[in-house]
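Action item from last week, closing it out:
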Amino acid sequence: MPHIANSTGFSHLPETVRGSGSLETRIAETEKAVLEELTRLDLSMNEAKILFNLMIHKNSTVTELASLTGIARTEMYRYLESLLSKGIVHTTFDRPQRYYALPYKEAIDHLVEIKMSALRSVSEKKDDFHRIVDGIVDSMVQEERTDNDSYQVIIGEDAMMAKLGRMIAKAEKEVTMIMQRDELVMLYRDGILSELCKLASKDVAVNIKTSYPRAQELLEEGPSATATKKKGMMIKLTIIRDAPQSLNCLVCDDRELVLVLSKASSTKRQETKTFYTNNRLMVSAFRVVLDKF
């Protein structure tokens, strides 16, 4: 019997998903991991279930899909119409109609392009809509407010990376952080370490404290790191042995703080929780903690 990873094209999944076990068990484990990815590309959970089952069963009728997914036939047509309109499912003229899905890689590439196109459109129009919103704001009398003592609880790894990126881009004097191995690798993967190298080349003090002994290797990779070393502006890296493994925080210019509250598994990046504040007392308190290591 063929290995499920080879037969479905999911060889990149973790060994816990691709490993030994019954075919039914491996399909269920693979489905759970793949559905997490598909729903991040603006598919509903039911659309993702239908697409996954079409991928592994090659083609199916509405009745067969209803049996495989547990979705009612009356609802199935609506989800299939949506998938057809997205260009990742096609059907036959025969009766009963059979539905086919694009291969996994092609479907992902297609969904990513759709999402990127939508994001590009929003980004291109942001200045125009910013002016429109500002025009409305300027025409209204509002109570004066301040941004002092605000906080956010940010859900999702992507949202956290975006927040860190904006904070680092505004840093003028100093960025100090304590991060463990998983978080450092995440910062490296999302380009945040590269941005920190750029900051260091602009006379912004960057201090990284971690218990990860191979952190230096992450900092020495990439064009930004090379440019930083040529200018002699090195990031200050401290390997510490006694830091609590759950402590991950970053302070910018003693004005803003990000604290990782809880980490998600590799297949559930959207469940990461992060706390942000610009409350000076809280920022100062955590700065004292950072300075102790």
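Closing note: The chain is about 50% helix and 15% strand.
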